[in-house]
Design a protein that fits this description.
Layout (H helix, E strand, L loop, with lengths): L1 E5 L5 E7 L2 H4 L5 H15 L58 H17 L3 E4 L9 H10 L7 E5 L4 H7 L5 E5 L5 H5 L3 E5 L2 H10 L1
Parallel strand pairs: 1-3, 3-6, 4-5, 4-6
Antiparallel strand pairs: 1-2
Helix pairs in contact: 2-3, 4-5
Length: about 210
C-alpha cells in the first residue's frame, strides 16, 4: 500500500512510501484488540479502594446485651456490620487488576488497530520535523495544517522529541509517542494517526518479528 508523504504544512512532497501489508493491511482480529484494550485499561486502575471491616473498627468487644429474652435478634458486638458505625460487610480491598498477555497477541492487536485505521484512511505519513524551541503555537499550526485541531490525533516519532512533546503536552486532544510506545488503545482512540517518515521502519520491524 503506497501513501503520499506530506510536509509540515500538509502539502504533498511528491514522494510516496510503501506501507507493509503485513502490518497495515491484515484482517483485523477483534478479539485480540479487545484483550489488549482490556489489559491497557486494567493496568491503569489503581486498585487502592479500601473500607474498614469488623476487625478494623475501634470499639468495645463486650457483648452489648444478653443472649435471650430481649425479643430481638442476638448480638455479640457493637462493631457488627448490622449496626450503624460498624464494619462494612465484604467491603472492597486493595487489589492488583493487571494481567499478562502473550507478546504475539499484543503485536497482532496493534497490527489490527493500524489496519483498521489504514482502511478508514486515518493514517498520514509526514516527513520528519522538529521545533527550534518548545512552543504550543508551533504545534497548533501543524494541527491546523492537517485539519485535526479539533480532533484527536496521535503523532508517532522514531525517537523521543523533547521540543515537540513540550509543545503538545497541554493539548488534550493530541499526543506524541514513539514507535516502541504504541498501544492498541491509543491507536484506536484517535481520529488521525500521523506517522513521521523515520518511524515507519521501526514500526514494521517491531511488529513483524
Amino acid at each position: 500500500m503506497k501513501v503520499a508523504v506530506l510536509d509540515i504544512q500538509g502539502k504533498d512532497t511528491g514522494r510516496k512510501v510503501e506501507l507493509s501489508d503485513t502490518v497495515y493491511g491484515i484482517e483485523p482480529n477483534k478479539h485480540a484488540v479487545y484483550l489488549d484494550v482490556k489489559q491497557y485499561l486494567a493496568n491503569k486502575r489503581q486498585g487502592t479502594s479500601k473500607s474498614k471491616e469488623r476487625a478494623e473498627i475501634s470499639g468495645s468487644t463486650r457483648k452489648i446485651k444478653k443472649q435471650k429474652g430481649t425479643g430481638t435478634a442476638r448480638a455479640g458486638s457493637i462493631k457488627s456490620g448490622v449496626f450503624r458505625g460498624g464494619g462494612r460487610i465484604f467491603g472492597p480491598r486493595p487489589q492488583d487488576h493487571s494481567f499478562k498477555l502473550n507478546k504475539n497477541l499484543k503485536k497482532l492487536a496493534r497490527k489490527s488497530a493500524l489496519s483498521i485505521q489504514a482502511k478508514d484512511n486515518n493514517i498520514v505519513v509526514v516527513e520528519d520535523f522538529n521545533f527550534e524551541s518548545p512552543k504550543t503555537k508551533y504545534f497548533t499550526d501543524v494541527l491546523e495544517a492537517f485539519g485535526v485541531e479539533n480532533k484527536k490525533s496521535l503523532f508517532v516519532f522514531a525517537e523521543p522529541n523533547n521540543n515537540v512533546y513540550l509543545s503538545s503536552r497541554n493539548l488534550k486532544r493530541s499526543k506524541t509517542t514513539t514507535n516502541t510506545g504504541l498501544s492498541t488503545y491509543e491507536l484506536l482512540n484517535v481520529n488521525k494517526i500521523i506517522l513521521l517518515e523515520s518511524s515507519l521502519e521501526g514500526i514494521e520491524s517491531n511488529l513483524s518479528k
